[in-house]
Amino acid sequence: MAEEFALDLEELRHLHEIAKRPRILSLLTSEIRNLEKLSSETVSSARVSQIPAPISTGTTVSSAPVLKYSPLASFSWDQDNDKVKIYVSLEGVDESKIESEFKQLSFDVKFHDIQGKNYRCAISKLHKEIVPEKCKLIIKPTRVIITLVKASKANWLDLHFKEDKLKPSMGKEKDPMAGIMDLMKNMYEDGDEEMKKTIAKAWTDARTGKTADPLSSYR
């Protein structure tokens, strides 16, 4: 584009030199000025476009410091049918500097800027489900009470989730005679002599593999 403007200007100036009529001279002068202005703007734009763009290194500098949390000195808890209360011993807690998040099976409470330190009370998997929208914090002068509202009226054995080791096994290979044998044992212990003789015989028959119903002798 700049080369085209230069050629046009050269030809207009040549015509201006040989022109004789005042009106033609005036028109050529005006056109030369306009073309010189356009040519100057085009050159300026080309120079700007040639300035290299800053190269991104792909490194993002974060101005926010990473917060560190100190362990809690002590806390305790208790429960009733509806709630679990966690008592955190902390003095000088500013309610505006607390962050809390409650979910169905977890909670996370952060205490910031307490005598220059940050503290955190969190459990990633609770013993049982809670109702997040009903949970709350109560700020006291020397402690904070975290109230977790139970989703069901079940007794909590611990704050943390634990497998119930007392849950009975429901194995597919369980002996189908076990229940009958337990029943016969109880009847034997509580029965009279005649009953004990009858049950003893039926028990013996069952153990030796006889097909007779072990309870048929005392029905």
Can you characterise this structure?
This protein is an alpha+beta fold. Among the domains are: 2-46, no CATH class; 75-149, Sandwich (Immunoglobulin-like). Helix content is 33%, strand content 21%. The protein is built from four helices and seven strands; from the N terminus they run H-H-E-E-E-E-E-E-E-H-H. The chain has helices at residues 2-18, 22-49, 178-190, 193-207; strands at residues 75-79, 83-89, 98-103, 106-114, 117-123, 136-139, 143-149. The protein has a four-stranded antiparallel sheet, with no helix packed on it. Strands 3-4-5 form a three-stranded antiparallel sheet, with no helix packed on it. The longest helix is centred in the first third of the chain and has 28 residues, at 22-49. The protein is elongated, with a radius of gyration of 46 Å. May be involved in calcium-dependent ubiquitination and subsequent proteasomal degradation of target proteins. Probably serves as a molecular bridge in ubiquitin E3 complexes. Participates in the ubiquitin-mediated degradation of beta-catenin (CTNNB1). Residues 145-219 form the SGS domain. One of its GO terms (biological process) is response to stress.
What's the layout of helices and strands?
Layout: H1 2-18, H2 22-49, E1 75-79, E2 83-89, E3 98-103, E4 106-114, E5 117-123, E6 136-139, E7 143-149, H3 178-190, H4 193-207
Antiparallel strand pairs: 1-2, 2-7, 3-4, 4-5, 6-7
Helix pairs in contact: 1-2, 3-4
